[in-house]
Design brief:
four-stranded mixed beta sheet; alpha+beta; 4 strands; elongated; about 70 residues
């Protein structure tokens, strides 16, 4: 998602956790954003990129933001 009024974007990665700690799963989501380099194409147009890893397990959830 790119905000056209301000040069910033948000990258969100969702992960569903069956047995793992939600905190660890949210961190794995952030790691995936880094490993797959999702922000590479955005860097040309956007200077401020927020990355969010969201872990879900049933009705519970955890979010880590960088």
């Amino acid at each position: 998602m790119i905000d056209k009024k301000l040069p910033r974007a948000v990258i969100i990665e969702f992960k569903v956790s069956d047995n793992e700690d939600l905190e660890k799963t949210a961190l794995k989501a952030l790691e995936q954003i880094e490993e797959k380099r999702y922000e590479v194409d955005l860097r040309e147009r956007v200077s401020n990129i927020v990355k969010a890893g969201i872990a879900l397990k049933g009705k519970s959830g955890r979010c880590k933001i960088v």
